[in-house]
């Protein structure tokens, strides 16, 4: 993620914040400008951007910003819509009569906005799903399980359902350990499930890409239910690391795509953060590779350079984590087969489908 600064005090402000920690002015994200802005309040529905010129002279906070503090996005004051581009995508939320559910909702929306930040940057911002037959819209249902009513996180025809209990850190970590996963986050859920949505978009817009897709990921027409049952009963192939980014990716080509897609998004935003932070690694020409940036990774043309930077960055991130006694920040290895899948995503889907 790029760095944002307050227009008044010029201190860094973070994407999730609603007030500048230093000068205490309100801040909010304007999606159309891709900017986190500092404001002065003229009235509850008229906030004036400070020190910068934008397409609109005044903005109002999203309804969920004003009433629940689970959002920090802004809308033009003249807009009849009360919800921002992010909150319009949320269709179902947990029952707020339970105050703990407000915390879960806050965490889910925070992760969703981070996913959408990258979608905006890569020109693939989804729009709301207007009807059941709408192939290009998306909606999010955040549902808490009830007794005898389990909730499975997943995607179906543009509807992404997230088990809201995943916002409970203890539950999520317990599930991660019990399932033998080395990585499980709310942001990871959004990025993985969005992969299924974007695959559907790709199918509708560019079906001619399916033949090449199958060269890398396999034939997605094989029975999905049977593939999952086989995976859960027998597990991943012994040598799955040679061809897949995770053991779950080996279950079915759709899951391979979604897992690889999620890792592509992880790669792009983390490298963008390193780019704006000015991070560099000076290699030793032996076993420590260098890292430098020729361009911002988002929209970058040299994907081989992006891959090299990613491998170097994650090696050093993991080394730093180990110095703190923590688990690896990126506990994955990219085989040549996985790199080819990432190249497919960068080469075709992002350059052809969403441009």
UniProtKB/TrEMBL annotation:
Domain Zinc-ribbon: 4-97
Gene3D superfamilies hit by this protein: 3.40.390.70
Protein origin, superkingdom: Bacteria
Membrane-spanning parts: none
InterPro entries listed in its UniProt record: UCP012641 (IPR031321), Zinc-ribbon_6_bact (IPR011201)
Pfam families reported in the protein's UniProt record: Peptidase_Mx (PF15887), Zn_ribbon_DZR_6 (PF10005)
Name of the protein in question: Zinc-binding peptidase
Originating species: Acinetobacter lwoffii
Lineage: Bacteria, Pseudomonadati, Pseudomonadota, Gammaproteobacteria, Moraxellales
């Amino acid at each position: 993620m790029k760095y944002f600064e307050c227009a008044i005090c010029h201190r860094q402000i973070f994407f999730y914040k609603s007030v500048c920690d230093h000068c205490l002015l309100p801040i909010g994200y304007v999606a159309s400008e891709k900017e986190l802005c500092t404001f002065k309040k003229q009235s509850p529905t008229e906030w004036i951007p400070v020190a910068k010129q934008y397409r609109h002279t005044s903005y109002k906070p999203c309804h969920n910003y004003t009433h629940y503090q689970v959002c920090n996005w802004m809308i033009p004051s003249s807009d009849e819509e009360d919800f921002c581009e992010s909150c319009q995508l949320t269709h179902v939320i947990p029952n707020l009569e339970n105050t703990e559910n407000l915390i879960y909702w806050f965490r889910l929306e925070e992760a969703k906005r981070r996913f959408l930040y990258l979608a905006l940057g890569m020109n693939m911002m989804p729009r709301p799903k207007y009807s059941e037959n709408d192939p290009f819209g998306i909606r999010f249902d955040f549902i808490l399980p009830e007794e005898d009513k389990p909730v499975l996180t997943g995607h179906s025809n543009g509807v992404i359902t997230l088990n809201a209990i995943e916002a409970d850190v203890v539950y999520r970590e317990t599930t991660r350990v019990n399932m033998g996963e080395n990585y499980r986050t709310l942001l990871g859920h959004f990025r993985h499930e969005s992969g299924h949505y974007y695959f559907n978009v790709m199918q509708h817009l560019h079906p001619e890409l399916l033949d090449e897709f199958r060269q890398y990921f396999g034939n997605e027409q094989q029975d999905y239910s049977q593939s999952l049952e086989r995976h859960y009963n027998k597990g991943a192939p012994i040598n799955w690391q040679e061809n897949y980014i995770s053991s779950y990716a080996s279950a079915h080509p759709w899951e391979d795509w979604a897992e690889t897609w999620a890792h592509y998004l992880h790669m792009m935003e983390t490298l963008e953060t390193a780019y704006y932070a000015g991070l560099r690694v000076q290699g030793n020409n032996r076993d420590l590779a260098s890292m430098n940036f020729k361009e911002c990774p988002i929209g970058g043309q040299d994907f081989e350079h992006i891959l090299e930077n990613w491998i170097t960055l994650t090696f050093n991130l993991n080394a730093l984590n180990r110095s703190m006694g923590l688990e690896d920040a990126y506990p994955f290895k990219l085989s040549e087969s996985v790199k080819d899948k990432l190249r497919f995503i960068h080469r075709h889907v992002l350059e052809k489908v969403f441009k």
